[in-house]
Design goal:
It is a single chain. With 420 residues, the protein is α+β, with helices and mostly antiparallel strands. The longest helix is centred in the middle third of the chain and has 21 residues. Helix 1 runs parallel beside helix 10 and helix 7 packs antiparallel against helix 8. The structure holds adenosine monophosphate and glycine. The site of glycine has 6 residues, from loops.
Length: 420
């Protein structure tokens, strides 16, 4: 099978590492890829992911059988629709279904009309009406801009003053003329839960917990994610059963019934509350860095699973996960998520990767004069598997210690929840 992988992060390096192990793999191309992905695939960095014509031409020239889309933006932008129209199988939903991530309002209305458990909400186009609503409901309360906000656009206000002050800010974050959402605050523990969905069939791909804050003890600014581990102990078999039954399957059914069947990985961001699982948000892609731990735990071949998802044949497949635990520690450039410098040299990658069970995935790296240098905010994902979380964590931090990159930092407490 000839495969084109789109994206350049640690998520895509982990996907490339797993896909390359498939005996079915023939030609393997990545756009744009990164120095880690280049070990497995031919990387082409001259085509922007927004250039759908050029991607279609590339698929034709290389006889691509399957396009695996890593990030959400091309999906929200309709890339899957275009590829499908050209007869190319694609792992990732069409534009209408990608609204699950592209529009919070779309998702909230879908939940409301199908009784899917989520935070109660109101939608507002007028700041004065929004303030009146906030005064009526009090704090804590959550304000959200609509649209693809790359992890920003949400204010969890713990006081009434904070909420009232945040309203104009959230209006300003969205596109002009758009509405904002005001949501009930959900109390509980957050979990990321992943399912392959081919329209009808839903196969669970395991759970993980992310660490969004930049510094130890969940302090500091929000980031794209500073580390993850899988499985999440709070997500028991009973929670998984309820989430499938009450949230994910009704969502897949609602979209299929509306003639906008979802095909791809569906990432449910959940709050495990005293009343059970509630949906915070959907993403239409693998999590980054959650994907990295899931790839280490996946037992067996990823390629047929992604192809069956894209072609509506998941019914004949199972996802087997190793019982072991996996953890990933994100190494970021000092200053991230604020200002940081690029170009510092990273060494010790081979020594770090030689620890049993450890894989160092590249995110924002580049190759310069034969050396690997930092080229982004989140730079490396030191990922390890072990018989339990404690062992996986020890391996990952042993690997971190072997890296020589003074300009980088990581959290030292990834998986603190799982270890009590
Ligand atoms: P989102 O961009 O929707 O994932 O929101 C970002 C973060 O805000 C989530 O990961 C949660 O930590 C928090 N959050 C969002 N919605 C709620 C809610 N209704 N109650 C409590 N926390 C929330
Ligand atoms: N790590 C969270 C995300 O990928 O959205």
């Amino acid at each position: 099978m000839n495969v084109l992988l789109l994206g350049s992060g640690g998520r895509e390096h982990a996907l490339a590492w797993k896909l390359a192990q498939s005996p079915l793999m023939e030609t393997f191309i990545a756009v744009p890829g990164n120095p880690g992905i280049a070990e497995f695939a031919r990387c082409i960095d001259t085509i922007p992911l927004t250039d759908h014509d050029a991607l279609v031409t590339l698929c034709g020239a290389e006889g691509i059988d399957l396009v695996v889309v890593g990030p959400e933006a091309p999906l929200v932008d309709g890339l899957a629709d275009r590829l499908i129209a050209e007869g190319i199988a694609v792992f990732g939903p069409r534009r209408v279904a990608a609204q699950l991530e592209g529009s919070k309002l779309f998702t909230k209305e879908l939940c409301k009309s199908h009784d899917i458990p989520t935070a109660a909400f109101g939608r507002f186009s007028d700041a004065e009406a929004a303030r009146a609503f906030v005064r009526r409901h009090g704090a804590p309360i959550v304000l959200k801009a609509d649209g693809l906000m790359a992890g920003k656009g949400v204010i969890v206000a713990m006081t009434l003053d904070e909420a009232l002050a945040g309203i104009d800010e959230v209006f300003a974050m969205g596109a002009s003329g758009t509405e904002i959402l005001i949501e009930e605050f959900l109390d509980g523990e957050e979990v990321s839960f992943f399912c392959l969905v081919d329209g009808e069939t839903v196969l669970p791909f395991g759970s993980a917990q992310d660490h969004k804050r930049a510094f130890d003890g969940d302090q500091g600014p929000n980031t794209g994610g500073m580390g993850a581990y899988s499985p999440a102990p709070v997500f028991t078999a009973e929670m998984e059963r309820r989430t499938l039954h009450e949230i994910v399957k009704p969502t897949a059914r609602a979209l299929a019934d509306a003639d906008s069947a979802y095909r791809g990985i569906l990432f449910a961001g959940l709050m495990i509350t005293a009343d059970g699982p509630k949906l915070i948000e959907y993403n239409v892609r693998f999590g980054d860095p959650e994907c990295q731990v899931l790839m280490l735990r996946l037992d067996g071949d990823l390629l047929p699973l992604l192809h069956a998802t894209a072609t509506g044949r998941l019914e004949d497949h199972d996802i087997a996960l190793k019982p072991e635990a996996a953890i990933t520690v994100v190494m970021a450039a000092r200053g991230y998520p604020g200002h940081y410098d690029k170009g510092s040299v990273i060494s010790g990658l081979e020594a770090a990767g030689s620890i049993p069970g450890v894989h160092v995935f590249h995110a924002g790296t580049a190759r310069r004069d034969g050396a690997i240098v930092a080229n982004g905010g989140r730079v490396l994902n030191v990922t390890a598997i072990g018989s339990n979380v404690a062992e996986a964590r020890e391996r990952a931090y042993d690997a971190v210690a072997r890296l020589d990159w003074p300009e980088g930092f990581c959290r030292s407490d990834i998986a603190w929840r799982a270890l009590g």
